[in-house]
Design brief:
By secondary structure, this protein is α+β, with helices and mostly antiparallel strands. It has helices at 2-26, 31-34, 39-55, 73-85, 106-110, 114-117, 131-137, 168-171, 256-261, 265-268, 282-293, 342-353, and strands at 89-93, 99-102, 151-163, 174-175, 178-192, 198-199, 206-207, 212-224, 242-244, 250-253, 308-312, 315-322, 325-331, 367-368, 371-375, 379-383, 386-387, 398-403, 410-415, 424-428, 431-435, 447-451. It has three domains: 85-224, Beta-Lactamase (2-Layer Sandwich); 242-293, 2-Layer Sandwich (Beta-Lactamase); 308-451, Kelch-type beta propeller (Neuraminidase), CATH 2.120.10.80.
């Protein structure tokens, strides 16, 4: 009987091993790799593969087992070599941060193999301080406009520190075993119209009877920052060199620009680069332009989300976004003229001078997803948002002003009828115009006016 039991167990193990062996052969990996996988790795990689099938149901040509008829042999060859040509690695993350796919080139930049990374959580390989940043990237934001598409994409660009186990001579710029990776890609969102569906939004768990939004996954490309010691950049045949002033007015372009764009160099000189960039890329160019102008800005800002910024002369004020900071003040920016709301500014100053409003003895709770705007040379207005202390279960309806300078003073202008979170706000004359955002129970699309003086 004992011998019989041993034989049955042996037979079961052999059948199980055979099934795992057959399953491993079905994975889109070289046989030299699949032959060495243990059972746990086979399950992990198979699960990731099935999730990728859900993320890209139309498949990736021959990889999914069926060739795309629309692709030529040359196109298929080019697609298969893209990750080798580009100086970085491609990766796909699930809503929970699990790595559904990562290209083999990750080993070149991180020293970690594709098989080791796939199926594991990205949080295991990034710096603990960057966990919040990564979670914010994977969070579905509230849509700013209505869309009839069942699926849409949201651009994502961020920096994270990833674990690097390469030898020092090959690792590039690293600190304490981590390397900064610049990631850019998009978050794939599905929209549902179901009454009883629980889905993710900027509040993480938002039940809506109209539209629900679910994070399907993040597709991004990561590449290492260049070394500080780099003295030249190799130009390939599909690249050209140009010089521009601080205002991005083109000063010089080499002759290859004609071959690549069709414009002669002399036709572009003394013209702004903004005139030749696609409208959808203007905001990205504007942001990069501002970063270049601020390259002498000698600060390191803690990671945060849901904050607001106010530029005041050569100073930058960061309001909220972290539970431990209500407002932070940095100096060293290029001096620019502040935004002035003349009528509202003079009225608020008069109210402060007449003690109609007085400084708060206790500072308000730090918050996120609010809106702030500069009012005059030394005032800022803050409205709405969500507090970190959890005391507010709905979007705030409080309006504050704060004096900008060495010693900030806060004034509470009271509460209005509507609370908002994730909204936009502008100042017209002596009134604030508020649009959109999240209200008490749902996403709002109306615009209303706040009259602060009344």
């Amino acid at each position: 009987m004992k011998e019989k039991s041993k034989n049955a167990a042996r037979s079961r193990r052999e059948k199980e091993n055979a099934e795992f062996f057959e399953l491993a052969k079905l994975l889109p990996l070289p046989h030299a790799i699949t032959d060495q996988l243990d059972k746990a790795s086979v399950i992990r990689l198979t699960t990731s593969y099935l999730k990728m099938r859900a993320f890209i149901p139309e498949g990736l040509g021959g990889v999914w087992g069926s060739r795309s008829l629309s692709q030529t042999a040359i196109e298929r060859e080019v697609n298969s070599q893209l990750t080798q040509i580009l100086d970085g690695f491609l990766f796909v993350l699930g809503p929970d941060g699990k790595i559904m796919y990562i290209s083999e080139t990750a080993s070149t930049h991180l020293g970690l193999s594709q098989v080791e990374l796939t199926g594991n959580s990205i949080y295991e390989y990034i710096h603990p301080i960057d966990h919040e940043e990564m979670a914010n990237v994977l969070t579905v934001p509230l849509p700013t406009y209505c869309t009839n598409n069942s699926e849409y994409e949201i651009d994502r660009s961020f920096f994270i520190r990833m674990k690097c186990v390469l030898a020092k001579r090959n690792a590039g710029l690293t600190a304490s075993g981590f390397k900064v990776i610049h990631c850019s890609g998009y978050l794939k969102i599905k929209q549902f119209n179901l009454d009883t569906l629980s889905c993710y939004s900027s509040t993480n768990n938002l039940n809506s009877t109209e539209n629900c939004y679910q994070n399907v996954g993040l597709l991004a490309y990561g590449y290492s920052l260049p070394s500080c010691s780099i003295t030249e950049i190799r130009l390939y045949s599909n690249m050209f060199m140009f010089r521009a002033g601080q205002d991005l007015k083109l000063l010089f372009l080499d002759s290859r620009v004609a071959q690549i764009t069709g414009y002669e160099p002399q036709d572009l000189v003394d013209r702004s680069l903004y005139h030749y960039v696609h409208t959808q890329d203007l905001m990205a160019l504007r942001w990069a332009h501002q970063i270049c102008k601020w390259e002498q800005f000698p600060i390191t800002v803690d990671s945060r989300s849901g904050h607001s910024l106010i530029g005041h002369g050569s100073s930058l004020y960061i309001i909220g976004g972290r539970a431990d900071h209500l407002i932070q003040h940095y100096t060293g920016l290029p001096v620019e003229n502040p935004i002035v709301c003349n009528s509202l500014y003079s009225d608020l100053k008069q109210m402060m001078k007449s003690n109609i409003i007085t400084p708060m003895k206790k500072l308000p709770s730090t918050r996120k997803d609010h809106t702030s705007l500069a009012c005059g040379p030394d005032l800022a207005i803050i409205y709405g948002g969500e507090t970190f202390d959890g005391k507010l279960r709905e979007p705030s309806n409080e309006v504050f002003i704060v004096t900008l300078g060495t010693h900030e003073q806060w004034y509470n202008l009271g509460q209005i009828e509507f609370g908002r979170q994730g909204h936009t706000m502008v100042c017209l004359d002596d009134r604030l115009i508020v649009h959109g955002g999240l209200g008490k129970n749902s996403v709002c699309n109306e615009t209303f006016v706040i009259d602060l003086i009344k």
